[in-house]
Batch of 3 targets.
Target 1
Amino acid sequence: MLNGTTAELVERKALRINPAKTCQPIGAMYAALGIHGCMPHSHGSQGCCSYHRSHLTRHFKEPVMATTSSFTEGSSVFGGMANLTQAFKNIFTIYNPEIVAVHTTCLSEVIGDDIPTIIKKSIEDGSIPAGKIAIHANTPSFVGSHVTGFSNMVMAMVNYLSEKTGTTLNQVNVIPGFVEPADMREIKRIAAAMSANIVMFPDTSNVLDGPLTGQYKMYPEGGATVAQIKSAGDSIATVALGHFASHVAAATLESKCNVPAAFLELPIGVGATDRFISTLANYAGVEVGPAIELERGRLVDLMSDLHQYFHGKRVAVAGDPDQVIAITQFLVELEMKPVYCITGSPGNQFEKRMHEILDGPVPEAKIKQTADLFELHQWMKNEPVDLLIGNTYGKHIARTENVPFVRFGFPILDRTGHRFFPTVGYMGAVNLINQMINVLLDKKDRECDEEWFELVQ
Amino acid sequence: MSSTIEVLPGRAASIAVAGEAGGAMVCDKHSLAGSVTQRACVFCGSRVVLYPIADALHVVHGPIGCAAYTWDIRGAQSSGPQLHRNSFSTDMQEMDVIYGGEKKLERALMELIEKHQPKAAFVYSTCIVGVIGDDVTAVCKKVEAAKGIPVLSVASEGFKGTKKDGYRAACEAVYTLIGTGDTKSIGPLSINLLGDFNIAGETWIIRDYFKRMGIEVVATITGDGRVDDIRRCHGAKLNLVQCAGSMTHLAKKMKEDHNIPFLKVSFFGLEDMSAALYDTAKFFGDEQLMDKAKEVVRDEIGKFYPQLRVYKEKLIGKKAAIYVGGAFKAFSLVRALRTLGMTTSIVGTQTGDKDDYAQLREMCDAGTVIVDDSNPLELAKFCLEKDVDLFIGGVKERPIAYKLGIGFCDHNHERKEALAGFVGMFNFAKEVYASCCSPVWNYVPRRARSQRPEVSGQKSDAESQTEVAS
């Protein structure tokens, strides 16, 4: 399939080949699933909703519910107000969620539907019944990426729901970023181990990693409740993880409710996890405690056991900006060489931050925003790497170039480990080390001459 | 649980029960705004139909999403070029929306055609293109003139109808290729296969049967498809239409303009597969051909029937729910399940019409629930009420079935084993058995608790398996 990829680089302005991103609405849909009792609603054609649900289902292997405005030619001419009003009526009548989170699509954006006005009218005419809530985020597909859509929906949660009552509550907000349910579960576990009282939103754990009970629940147990998100305005502080997915929401909360925020990166690897844990401990007024210190010690122990294997290994990383920024730092901690780092999402902060991280230890590194996998592959053809880290779409390159491959990020459509094993926190770093060492040594064991085939590594 | 799930008031007319009174079902409509529909859009219909043409360039004109979600998702295999598996898009940005994307599209096409030298190019319009008014056809004509290959505009703006309209747009695009190739070397015993997409290599299996009968397959549209084959396919004497929903339109056009008759067939299940071969032989009115068809059927059934019987013994009496795209597939599945001794308790489609549903009511056992354009809540409700053992559907239905503790078989894009042909029936039986009778369901609380007297008064599935097997 990728036989046509050549090492010769040609500048492309009009063309995207094998993208390293997708569109805003799917990010908004994922974020909305992290509110308890929420029905995400796609204001556009049926196809958008269907694609997002299928794609999320392939990644999470879980039912993904969302409704659609089912646009027709008529709605594209006269606007989607009638569709959305009708949708509210139907959704609340039959699916009975506590809250509907509307996101737009390229179609409804270009038509220019005014969602806040439609929501207002729907409350007035009873299409949204008393006691029920609708929120919205504008998510035009032709701006940003799925990460932007996620960020916009988290911001909408703050804008619509969070309130300051004047009584500060003994809790810290955590905005976890566009990460797995397993990661959100891990963040809650860490906070509990430190006795830090947190409110996390969105929270898709127990929504998209639920148990098999023989029952089908449209609204699973998990998710941040509306009351929790509301109370975020009274929290001591906010810890926002990831510039691209979380910082806007934290800044909004800061200006709207005067809740101070720490703008951190995703806690992947030792340093970033240290910063997260100490920030959380500070705000919550708790000690880090021996349980977490023990985990850190075990991670560092593992790093020391294996550091020779990682030293100097050339790595290509593709993914969402927050993820790439975070894992690159971890790779540097392991003295690996992240030589190619790309994201499909636009945003200058990515390149700026990546240069800060890599200009010292890996001055030859190539860093690019708004890039695609075709270009990354071309770089790899010019000068190969020892390891590729990226989402499932990296598998074509990994196979063509025979490069060990660790799946990391969104989406992962062909493996299941991401549902159970976090990559955040000290234990997440252990998981990443485990995956990296396994693929590196598996390749050696498979391919080395027999005299170099060793029992003990 | 089941009592708490209700059917949307507006949906009642789209649900019927076989053997009970009732008028024609309401179907073939846009889904209700606000429903969790399992359906997709016009673009989706066009993209899935044309995608398997492997030596053509497929360019999605629009923002990145539509290209990203249709990138290499369909296991439509190619015996040669793999170009179709890449994702090419104009990745429209805000400025393109404001100033139009025609220039960008033209540049993208020129670059790609230069680089890959494809036999043809398909350009898919997405919602936004329909709203901002890019003249995609004009761009296509310009590039076609410059590059000397067919560059085809697919009118697949998502909101302009249903998935069915997307099939139609795809047929229209393919049709512009037909009639442009040399048909001289095509013999009198020749056919085209329409509407098989070579998922898990199914086209190859079907081709082989016809080859053994001495019939030439001119073009497969679109499974393992090639542009040059399509260009000359008007030289074939008969069209076999397997996925009637997507390809009947093309077959009709070829009948009108090229006088090629068509037969609607199905390659799923022993009965339907055999009928497809016999009907083809009958069409050519050649005794020898009929003998060869019988030989193929005899050989193949001989090969698989003993193994099918073993599965049937284990599956007899089990109940299935079917929710698929087209009605023709649903018909085949009802019959195929009968071959395995199973009954169909629920059957639904995304794109069936009135006649299709009338036929389903006719062919299903009394009490079978029949639904058009269903949603997860409805499906879950009926599955629990009917206590089915198996769900046959696509990607969005799988996790719902599993959550209920029900076995699953993907009869859609993500099937991993060929389900067409005689060997396909064997694979189907194996897959159905593996899922229906998996011991994993014994650990599901709902299943472990329930008493299921209809299967030899058993206490658990595991015990019944041993009983039946012995």
Note: The first helix of chain B runs from residue 42 to 50.
Target 2
Amino acid sequence: MIGCACALTLTTWTMGIDWPMIVGGKDPISLPNYIPVTFEMTVLFTAFGMVGTFLITNGLGPNANPNMFDPRSTDNKFVMAINLSSNKMAEADIVKILQDTGAEEVNIKQF
Amino acid sequence: MHVTSPVRPPLITGGKTYADVTEDICRQVEGKPTKQWMIAFTISVIVLIYGTACLFWTWWEGLGVWGLNKTVGWAWDITNFVWWVGIGHAGTLISAILLLFRQKWRTSINRAAEAMTIFAVLCAASFILMHMGRPWLAYWALPLPNAFGSLWVNFNSPLVWDVFAISTYFSVSLVFWYIGLIPDLATIRDRAQSKVSRFIYGTFAMGWNGSAKTWSRYEYISLILAGLSTPLVLSVHTIVSMDFATSVIPGWHTTIFPPYFVAGAIFSGFAMVQNLMLITRVVYRLEDYITLEHIESMNKVITLTGSIVGVAYLTEFFIAWYSGVEYESYAFINRATGPYWWAYWAMMTCNVISPQLFWSRKLRRSVTWTFFISVIVNIGMWFERFVIIVTSLHRDYLPSSWAMFSPTRYDIGDYIFSFGLFFTLFLLFSKYLPVINMAEVKAVIKSSSEKLPQKVSGVAKAQRISNPSFNKDPQ
């Protein structure tokens, strides 16, 4: 929306108001001719806006601290994290359940 | 949820597990450059240096060093520009449109195809700068308040639309490609042995931690970017075609141009992807990831778009006659039988006839034939642009100004420059970044790998298709 508005403002203001130009016998403000630029600007703003949002919500940025449970999770392992302090079950019980249901490794880590 | 039919041939062969995928693809990134790579890289750099010298001279001396004359004012520069932009269409098509269509075979080739897109668009942009003759004034194409008076760019002009279209396409493709790279960069970061590479890959991996939430957002952003890129892909070549179609030159002034250019772009782009992937596949021993299935699927796209292009050529010819416009008809008869007849028939043979060979399953699944036809298609698509541009211009309304165009060594040298640039960038990419999207391949492996242990895949082995003969295990 912002991109679309920016593009429309830019095209109509520059071509129609600031320095009206008649090109090819067309009206100074000829909206059909502004569609390509408006479309491209809309897509550009949306894409960058979405990517920006994605990076911010995930806390991603150059040299951000990954804060990972296990570095092998980016290779071939899956990690399930359970917060011990907010869990009613005892630590040993949780470890036992996990091991019984086929966990390859159970670690207790401080974060 | 997406369900894969058990009768579908597997996409990844050789019984790869998740760890195998990481291992196979990271090997290139982590190891020392191979001898083949060093040789190829040296050649590319030499070509690039030669091209840069030619380019320098073009700018130093002026565009007079090209073979242009007052009748043919646009020739190889725009031919090469349109050709490269066309090639740059396949990558985003594969990653965006095929993602929306849920075509899983794209996972093995999307990374390299997107990289190819970005480099091809860079090459195309270099021709825009070149044909300006005074590249230091390139900013005039931007809507900046002019220091010499308040003149703005003309937003009615398709050339200005092009500036917006190409720069948007380039930036969105780059961002899309980079977002796809982040999980893989994180994999390399976590495997890195040396501090330096951990730091570098860590910087670019942006602190990716692969948590479920991050992954779910990643899936969404991929879908959204794919949804945005799909109309973008179609719009870029449409706008490029309007550079011609909005003019009044016979042979350019046709409404069929936008769809016909888009089909042609996808056609040449897939041919270039085939060329690059077939080489990468052999050099990096990725036959299990880029299988004959992938090659066949791409060949089907080539045949489809090639046929669309063929129909467009014939329609154009028919309309030129049917319109009853003398100049229009002459432009087309001149294309086919005039002094540039050889270019026209080269285009017809390469683009219309050669992809039809892929109706044969045997040729479609033959690596040698695929490579050969892809090269032919690329040559044909270059001739298509040459035919459109030079043959439409060289005989204009005034027979006294009819002329021929012949390229000088600087026309050729500047074209060579773009090849040097393209291959240098592609080789750097294939050495320092994973050429296959590991994360996405891992996502399809469960439903599409040949013989993943039952424990992991959750599907009994007997239910899967028995090993088809064309996907024979190399071991």
Note: Residues 55 and 61 of chain A are 7 Å apart (CA to CA).
Target 3
Amino acid sequence: MSEQTKGPINNIVELATFYVGDALCGMDILKVQEINKLLQMTKVPQAPEYVIGILNLRGQIVTIIDLGKKLGLGETDLTQDPRNIIVNDSGSHVGLLVKKIGDVVPANMEKSEPAPANMQGIQGEFFTGVYKTESELIGILDVEKVLSIEE
Amino acid sequence: MQIEDDEILQGFIEESLEHLADIENDLLSIEEGGENIDEDLVNKVFRAAHSIKGGAGFMGLTKIQELSHSMENVLGLIRSKKLIPTPEIINVLLLGSDQLQSMIEDVQNSNDADIEAHLIPLNDIFDGKFDQPTAGAPAAAPKTPADPEPASAAEPEPHQPEPEPAQPEPEPVAEFNPQPIEEDISPDDPEILLDDEILENETPPEIIEPDPIEIPEEKPEPQLTAQSAAPPQVSPSAQPQNPGMPKDAPGSAPAKVETSIRVHVSLLDSLMTLAGELVLSRNQLLQTIGSDDLRNAEAVGQRIDLITSELQEAIMLTRMQPIGNVFNKFPRVVRDLSKKLKKKIDLTIVGKDVELDKTIIEAINDPLTHLIRNSVDHGIELPEDRKKIGKTENGLVILKAFHEAGQVVIEISDDGKGIDGDALAASAVNKGLLTVEQTQAMSDKEKVNLIFLPGFSMAKQVTDVSGRGVGMDVVKTNLDQLGGHVDIISEVGKGSTISVKLPLTLAIIPCQIIMTGGERYAIPQVNLEELLRIPASQVKERVERVGNAEVVRLRGNLLPLIRLADVIGAERTYYDQTSDDFKPDRREQISDRRSQESPLFNKKDSSDSTEPSEDTSERNGSDRRFSASSALNIVVVSTGSMKYGLIVDKLQDSEEIVIKPLGRHLQQCKGYAGATIMGDGRIALILDVSNISRMAHLTSLDGSDRASEVALAAEEAIRAKKDKQALLIFRSSEDEQFGVPLNQVERIEKIKRSEVEDLGGKRIMKYRGGSLSLMCIDDVAMVNPIADHDDLLVIVFNIASRPVGLLAIGPVDAVEIAADIDDVTLKQTGIMGSFIINDHTTLLVNVFELTQTLYPEWFEDREVFEFDEATEGSAPTILIAEDSNFFRNQVKGYMTESGYEVLEGEDGQVAWELLQENFEDITLVVTDIEMPNMNGFELTQQIKSDPRYSSMPVIALTTLAGEEDIAKGKAVGVDEYHIKLDKEKLMAAVHDYVKRLH
């Protein structure tokens, strides 16, 4: 909801949308560094369950988090051409593995609504709000929350 | 205050700090020189102070300017020889430079600093008023301005005349080391506390303590309040007076990190050139990619490879700094500390120019300080004590850096009292860290290394007994993190040497790449001891279980095994060579197959394994043992005192890798030190060997493991009492296998058949500028003729002082067998006997006999000599003690052939009895080492300790003369060691002794 107050003029934010499982989610496109489909991942035994591996992104080691697993929607199917959304995480990069990339949706954040406790099976804690377009409902992902480390 | 131009200020700070670093050491040299003032040196310090003053004036740093001005004044007097630099004056100057340094480091607040305490004594010196106040002035330094009488604090002090040897001045000065310091400091600050601080807070309070020591007596309270930042148990003055070591201030926890570095212009130029070349190569590469010209692409690839390595090297050079940067502060540390401790210590520094990576230089500062302090504090004795035991009054601490095998070695040695390993061991037992049995099994070196055991540092009694062991585990941990290695050699009463081995750089490290669970991992080479592959057929014998742990027998020691997949929780797989992929491994334990080894089962399994791809799901733990892929690949790694084997699926190349950090989500994975990008662009994780051992609950230097290890080894030694003989196995014809004792073999050469020449009825080949006589086994013995191969092997022996080659064919192998050699069934000329190895009957070749038969002329001289020897008096009698029939008969054969009488005993006991019965006749004893009832050592000891026989020579025979055995033998009185079956040397020695005795 912080976006409501500190968004750009008219509070219009461009949301990059993507599917996690069947749920349509979105995040401020300015937070996205790039989207790729590098899947030559190296498994990291011992890693938290939601970390599915690490990736070489032009010489940088990028941790890939399976958003499906993180949000409790089950594993993302690696055979269905999933994508990595690379975001900046306190200086280093983290990849969020999603099932599919959607459109970029301009959204007036003033119109976003608080997230319900449970949205299509996803725990509400990972969302800052919900945005309704004419046809769809976009859950606005709380990237910081997703990237935070439990315990 | 506001400083306008950051860049200029930064430049001033850097330059001034550089000057100050020099000033400190130069002042110390000036102090050493005393009256003989080295003008150049004084000039140098003068100029340094002058340029700081100039810079500070320009920048508006008034306090810095003021202080440097006062210092300059004093230095000016010294330069013009109007003032003799006494230790007191130098001290004032040193304190001044310390203050300067702290102000320069905190330049923004420097104008608020209180420098009165330094100015007063400096000005006093300049005005010639400096007399007694020397003592008090520096002591007053830490006092707040609120303190009313800095001078008066000083004046009443001169109560203890200081017997400074180097002090030319008559006036009694009290400032250093008055008694109170010890009473003040030692009781409430046990050394443990102080020393630990070094590492944690990096506060060497003693360093500056000599000066302010009176304070606690006089006015403890104001100081404490004034210096609230200083920890209470440390002398309150520590912080402000100690800017020379900014890291040491408890408040400034993060170490000073330099933001800029000086690089030689020529190095920059070469970097520039390389960068230019790289650009050119890139252009070439882009062109080639367009043109589809493979050959050209290859050339460009090579070029880029070359330039990249050169560039890497050059960039690495920019990070290299002389270790002198760290070493230079130690003269001061040693000086101050030795004054405080009332010791006389000379510090010698060697190898200041040795260069190390910047990060390493920064990181070794604290561990080194700790080690130096340990040497000064606990190593070197007090002058009186040194005199008593006949040492010079001045203790010597040597700090030395040098390159060795691609690493930098730093040695800190002292000629002090050394470390008493037994005391350490006893203390470890007291602490419950080890049991008595465990310590008994330890070598002296291991005992000394106990000092590194965590938990030991807190043991107060250790410090009391031997003086060391404080925080050493922290030192070791710090150095381990750098990929370094610490080792202590110590001799009680003579001193100790601690050597630290460090890698040149941390950025790029050579690693061994391994595969497990289908992923690649890198193991740093510094941790790598060796790679071990246990063939499927040996897994059963060599891998055992001790308690819950799996261990492998490696050269007589037991090595704990960790399965990498289990520790990091990867899928357990094994590498199947036939299908070249990884398959899940469902065995619970490596030794599982044992339970399934009924002969029936085996048979079925081994037939299965001939068609491994048939149905993998039916494979079980047992049959895998019999296919090639079931061999175990073990990476033997060591970290500090610990050594263990990591079982991995597959071993790959060794590569130089660049460490990249893992993201924060993976910080919880302790098993990795980072990741690296491999040639194919994929990532491999770098294993943290010491954390992995922790995760697997292996404990370091662990007593219980070690004790059981030793016990097991001893047990094993008894079980396998039979001698082992190392043999070289080869073939001559395709289907006959031969062996010769490995220790007789000089070399093995590969030759072509065409190189063999037949001349004058002899077979020879050109070899090392001469001709080498060649022979075949079938020349003498009734065996099949040598195979008609084009590629032959020549096994070179040295018989009768000449090289002789034995033609053979491969495959060759070296094996160790128990000595159950049959010397009857297949014995013939040139063949000693036979034994069975891997179900093959193998003939043991008697090379000596072969040579003797083919080249009798080589032995003519010798035979004559031998008979002379024998006929001179009555034939000398030789007593042979040997449990193996085969060897006994061999040796007996040699002896009788040379005309000696022989008595034989099948063990030490029998031989001893024989010796007592036939004492008169026996000239010499030849004994085996490993024998039942009484072994060779015991026999020798009995002989040598009996006055009747003590002059009797004893020659010991072993299959493999190990250093340890030899030392042990020498200790009990063995006169000479010889290798079994080396007839020539043995006989020469026997002749020699016999001749001497007759």
Note: Confidence is low (pLDDT under 50) at residues 1-8 of chain A.
